[in-house]
Amino acid sequence: MSEAKRLAGEKAIEFVEDGMIVGVGTGSTVAYFIDALAPLRHRIEGAVSSSEQSTARLKQHGIPVLDLNATGPLALYVDGADECDPGKHLIKGGGAALTREKIIAEASERFVCIVDAAKQVPVLGRFPLPIEVIPMARSLVARAVLEQTGGQPVWREGVSTDNGNWVLDIHGLEITDPVALEARLNQIPGVVAVGLFARRPADVVIVGGDPIQVL
Ligand code: 5RP
């Protein structure tokens, strides 16, 4: 449990407006946001969830979980990150929920990212970059990533995503052009989603701490 994560999660409540359908990410920081959202459940229409884990927590609190196909575009998405650079580009997917997170981020007008200060980096890449892959393409994607980036792919063995796919974590990258790398990796057949949120970065980053920063 982290005080900084709790502060960031609770601060994000200020972006929730009456009648909203709120996009909800995944992870320990988001869990604080969900808990803080619970008392407002009668003032919002519901939530669109990025994972089975968040769905379970939302439902425990009696917050209706809606289907993105039925809701259309969302006004707000709140999610954590594994790393955040000064341009609000993110590495996500430490919790293996990157594909659904990316879909909801894309569908949302405003993406509020909640982190603690340890997630802030000048250049992305210290945290291994997650890539969700179709299982039969695991080695093909790993070879292509190594060849194209020099990064070392490691299979997150034993982990299956909510979509039934596998995850490769790419170690040793120094991501100076996150938009270009995201576009390049997305071209490899078998890649479902890349955990770089650069073409669609966060709009607002809340850094929990004393004082809380809203960037
Ligand atoms: C899940 C994610 C999470 O947002 C990321 O891993 C941060 O998690 P936490 O808030 O537990 O530090 O991308 O896929």
Helix amount: 25-40%
Q: How many domains make up the coordinates?
A: 2
CATH architecture of the largest domain: 3-Layer(aba) Sandwich
Q: Return Rg in Å.
A: 17 Å
Biggest sheet statistics: 6 strands, mixed
Mean pLDDT: 98
Unreliable segments (pLDDT under 50, ≥5 consecutive)? none
**What ligand molecules are bound, each kind once?**
ribulose-5-phosphate
Q: What is the helix tally?
A: 7
CATH topology-level name of the largest domain: Rossmann fold
Specify the structural class: alpha/beta
**Strand order in the largest sheet:** 2-1-3-6-12-13
- Shape, please? globular
CATH class of the largest domain equals Alpha Beta
**Percentage of β-strand residues:** 25-35%
Output the helix-strand order: HEHEHHEEEHEEHEEHEEEE
> In whole angstroms, how far apart are the ends?
23 Å
